[in-house]
TrEMBL record:
InterPro entries xrefs: CBS_dom, CBS_dom_sf, Diverse_CBS-Domain
PANTHER family per UniProt: CBS DOMAIN-CONTAINING PROTEIN, CBS DOMAIN-CONTAINING PROTEIN CBSX3, MITOCHONDRIAL
PROSITE patterns documented for this protein: CBS
GO terms assigned for molecular function: kinase activity
Chain ranges of the CBS domain: 68-120
Pfam families in UniProt: CBS
Keywords: CBS domain, Kinase, Transferase
Keyword Iron: no
Protein name (record): Histidine kinase
Organism: Sedimenticola thiotaurini
Coiled-coil stretches noted in the UniProt entry, renumbered to this chain: none
Superkingdom of the organism of origin: Bacteria
Source lineage: Bacteria, Pseudomonadati, Pseudomonadota, Gammaproteobacteria, Chromatiales
Amino acid sequence: MKSEVDTVDGMDTVEAALQKMVHVETKTLIVNKRDENDAFGIVMFSDIARKVLARDRPPARVNIYEVMTKPVISVEPDMDIRYCARLFDRLHLSRAPVISQGKVLGVVSFSDMILKGIKQ
């Protein structure tokens, strides 16, 4: 699990998000909640490629809320790695935030699970 979580606001432009992704060397940003009753979102390079680049939309004129996935599918920090891998496979996920008590603790990916599974 990557415990340093990079976030973005849903009103930010894709251009601003891409600058942030390049600066922090990440492929995933968690979209902040607007208030305590809202849900987290997620935006990945693949979302931007499919919904902005492939459709020839200008990144400076597209907001994150237009391309993000919300609500995000998340996992609990104590979920068994085997069940997490099965969830990813069933829902065709590549990564998901780890959320506990309404707080994002990190982001887990298939790569993280494979590396942890090898070490066990």
